[in-house]
UniProtKB/TrEMBL annotation:
Residues 1-22 form the signal peptide. It comes from Arcicella lustrica. This is Sulfatase. Belongs to the sulfatase family. InterPro entries: Alkaline_phosphatase_core_sf, Sulfatase, Sulfatase_N. It comes from the Bacteria. Keywords: Hydrolase, Signal. It holds the Pfam family Sulfatase. Residues 31-339 form the Sulfatase N-terminal domain. CDD domains: GALNS_like.
Length: 475
């Protein structure tokens, strides 16, 4: 039987049209998410923001290929609270968190709160957490009880061990945990950056054919500082610079893996920090990039941190975003991008998806609340204005920093008078212009009063109507 030439030609064009139609369709696979959270890395600690004495070429490359957020705030200026805010999209005080939990804590992340991992698990994602957890060390509060398929890391900060320079022998041996079992104590910290990086890479390789979410929470550059032989003595800034170079290497290894596996066009990489530098550790601390104060304060140096995001072909390359944004916003952004429903309970984050697409006319967030200590509302930002309320808090000023792992003195109860600051002209918060802008002050006062009704304020003796309980051990 002969097949007509015109028939063959018709079939050819039908197949060609079908192929072209399929090729033009958007990718249906949900994007992978890699979220890297450094500990105590200040705004000035990467090359993009002026690091001196060492280079961070991989993070600088991220800035060239993606977005750098210049007004990005950690949820709070201390470890546990910041991580609670990141993973739940809530101000930490909304979910009962403050401070930094240690080995005596009988509390942790409430199982009724929904984490990024839990949202993504419902969307078919494989999930993993590596590095520092710090949201409850008891088995019922570990990552595997909060949406993560696997976990390998530390339950709290790496200085919570018997060799703490101030509280020697207060802490028990530092445990290294895999899933929910302690597999070692006082492990070699010089291998942490390499170990947690290799675990992350292994997880990506294992899950390359399905969507994944990996949360890599490096324990450093929080003190005590350790570095592997690969980077020991490599920087001109000493051990701190060596550590940052190795952390930057970690970012490079992860991104190279994504390229090698041809996953870079379908993976969002986010790199940021939990709070600013711990200044009283001197040469073992980083830089706030000229902002005032550091870790443990609600001044800009305590909470404004670097944030880099890349997604090849989606996020515009080489752009600085000056819109206000926060670690609170990571959860709702990921939810919108992946199609995951938001948590059923109220959250405080907003989606940055429009910003990630380069539309900076959008202002998904124009207000940020600076809470600290148990529940003190110490400042409010709206647009370019920041109103700081009188409060007692930490200051590093006037004290000689420590050296080589030993801390210097700080005043934890300095009485700040507060004031109104124009962050567009005075990012170091030195010039109080409250008397010159009474209407601006009035606007920010109204925002603060609404926050006090919602979340409370210990400075004014207000409990707040919508705070939720931290998770507590049943017995």
């Amino acid at each position: 039987m002969k097949i007509q030439y015109k028939s063959l030609l018709g079939i050819f064009f039908i197949l060609l049209s079908l192929f072209s139609f399929q090729a033009s369709q958007p990718k249906t696979r949900k994007p992978n998410i890699v979220l890297v959270y450094f500990d105590d890395m200040g705004f000035g600690d990467i090359g993009r923001t002026g690091a001196i004495g060492y280079q961070t070429p991989n993070m600088d490359q991220m800035a060239k290929e993606g977005l750098f957020f210049s007004h990005f705030y950690a949820p709070q200026a201390v470890c546990s609270a910041s991580r609670a805010g990141l993973l739940t999209g809530c101000y930490p005080n909304r979910v009962g968190f403050s401070g930094a939990l240690d080995h005596t804590a009988k509390v942790g992340l409430n199982p009724e709160e929904e984490t990024i991992a839990e949202l993504l698990k419902k969307q078919g994602y494989s999930t993993a957490a590596y590095g520092k957890w710090h949201l409850g060390h008891l088995p019922e509060f570990l990552p595997t009880k909060n949406g993560f398929d696997e976990y390998f890391g530390l339950p709290y900060s790496n200085d919570m061990w018997p060799n703490h320079p101030v509280a020697k022998n207060y802490y028990p041996p530092l445990p290294l945990i895999e899933n929910d079992k302690v597999i070692a104590t006082n492990p070699d910290q010089s291998q942490f950056t390499t170990q947690f990086t290799e675990k992350t890479i292994g997880f990506i390789q294992k899950n390359k054919d399905k969507p994944f979410f990996v949360y890599l929470a490096h324990p450093m550059p929080h003190v005590p500082l350790f570095v592997s032989d690969k980077f020991k003595g490599k920087s001109e800034q000493g051990l701190f610079g060596d550590v940052l170079m190795e952390l930057d290497w970690s970012i490079g290894q992860i991104r190279k893996t994504l390229v090698d596996l041809k996953l870079d066009e379908n993976t969002i990489v986010i790199v940021t920090s939990d709070n600013g530098p711990w200044f009283n550790y001197g040469n073992h601390a980083g830089s706030a990039g000229g902002f005032r104060e550091g870790k443990g304060t609600t001044w800009e140096g305590g909470q404004r941190v670097p944030c880099l995001m890349t997604w090849k072909g989606v996020i515009p390359a080489g752009v600085v975003c000056n819109n206000i944004s926060s670690g609170l916003d990571i959860l709702p952004t990921i939810a919108e991008v992946t199609g995951a429903p938001l948590p059923t309970k109220k959250i405080d984050g907003v989606s940055l998806w429009k910003l990630l697409q380069g539309d900076f006319t959008e202002k998904p967030r124009d207000t940020f609340l600076y809470y600290y200590r148990a529940n003190n509302l110490e400042a409010v930002r709206h647009g370019k204005w920041k109103l700081v309320f009188p409060h007692s808090g930490r200051t590093y000023e006037g004290f000689t920093p420590g050296k080589d792992g030993l801390p210097g003195a700080v005043n934890e109860n300095y009485n700040f008078m507060g004031g109104l600051f124009d962050l567009s002209k005075d990012p170091s918060e030195r010039y109080n212009v409250q008397l010159d802008f009474p209407e601006v002050t009035k606007t920010l006062m109204k925002i603060a009063d609404e926050a006090r009704e919602d979340l409370g304020d210990d400075l004014q003796g207000k409990a707040g109507k919508n705070r939720r309980a931290i998770g507590k051990r049943a017995n």
